Amino acid sequence: MVVISYVRAAVSATASAIWALSLRRWGLLSLGSSLLYLWNISTLSSRRRNSDNSPCPEHGPLLRIMYGLFSTWLAERVLGHLLHTRPDEPQAEQIGGTLPSVMGPRELRIKVVPILGAAFGGNYAYLIWDEDDPDRRAIVVDPADPYPVLRAAEEERLNVEVLLTTHWHFDHSGGNATFAREVPGLRVVASDRERGRVPALTERLADEQTIAVGRLLVTAHSVPGHTLGSAVFQISSSAAPAAPHAAFTGDTLFCGGCGRLFEGSSLQLHASLRRLRTRLAPNCQVFSGHEYADMLLTMAVRSDPSNLAALRKLRQVRDLRLRKQPSVPSTMAEECSFNPWMKATPLDLARLCGCEM
């Protein structure tokens, strides 16, 4: 009986300790989430907040509430549970049934992986590798739904070493934690302007800082606007310096448009787009984070029927989409010829972004 009493006491004490630990854990999670929620809301642009007095869009109360929740642990649990593909289930069909596609020279091979179904308008993650690398080292960009990208890497017999996150929004960074768990030693990289909102982050890159993955060179470009920490990652190969570089633009630059202003001002966005025009070569290929080309090019043609370059590109895009191919990439030369956002003045950008003047 004495032994049984001791066992019961031990079990009771253990259960109490687990319960206390659980309460403490949930308390810490709640506190951390509350602070992150307040920080997220504080980063939303507003005329009163911007020190440069530049025009910004007004955000309604509902958007502010949702934006505050967007990157908390709750969003990751809820959205991840609803949208992430399970390891043993087929991937949700992308908008238009987009198929994965491999392109580029051997020295800079790129696989486009459609992810997240239709939830955010058709997201793209990317795998980049050097076909002649004996170690099959690879880079992944924005694998917000991790398992389809992990399967794609396995199909290509790749060893993913670096994960690049263009910005903190869930539909770009929501798979980081799972990817890092599945790939021990993974380097998770983002802009040094990201402040604690990119999951599993291990490295921050300053503007124009470069890292190497084998013969692949990754250069970060700081492009505040869509978010304050947005980055474009330019990737080239030291084995083929004359080959066109690839720029992974996230939600900063799309074919025929650019991302909505959430945290930055129209002046910041204008400076970021001008920075890309200056730094990226005309033949640099642009790989954006979403399949928005048809919609944005249609808007460009409707707003300016004389924009014949946009009309030609729209026809090309629709032909690709009919064949279930991704519309990416465009080139910087193309974007400068037909993208109204790339040609806009600061005042034009403010109007396009819906900012008050």
From TrEMBL:
What Gene3D superfamilies does this protein map onto?
Ribonuclease Z/Hydroxyacylglutathione hydrolase-like (3.60.15.10)
- Keyword field contains Transmembrane: no
The source's superkingdom equals Eukaryota
The cofactor named in the record is: Zn(2+)
Q: Which residues form a coiled coil?
A: none
- Can you provide one Gene Ontology molecular function annotated for this UniProt record? hydroxyacylglutathione hydrolase activity
User: One matching Pfam family, short form?
Assistant: HAGH_C
What are the record keywords, sorted?
Hydrolase, Metal-binding, Zinc
Domain Metallo-beta-lactamase: start-end pairs:
122-290
Which InterPro entries does this UniProt record tie to the protein?
Clx_II_MBL, HAGH_C, Metallo-B-lactamas, RibonucZ/Hydroxyglut_hydro
Q: Which family does it belong to?
A: Belongs to the metallo-beta-lactamase superfamily. Glyoxalase II family.
Alphabetized PANTHER family for the sequence:
BETA LACTAMASE DOMAIN (PTHR11935), HYDROXYACYLGLUTATHIONE HYDROLASE 2, CHLOROPLASTIC-RELATED (PTHR11935:SF7)
Protein name as annotated: Metallo-beta-lactamase domain-containing protein
Organism whose genome encodes this protein: Emiliania huxleyi (strain CCMP1516)
Upper classification of the source organism reads: Eukaryota, Haptista, Haptophyta, Prymnesiophyceae, Isochrysidales
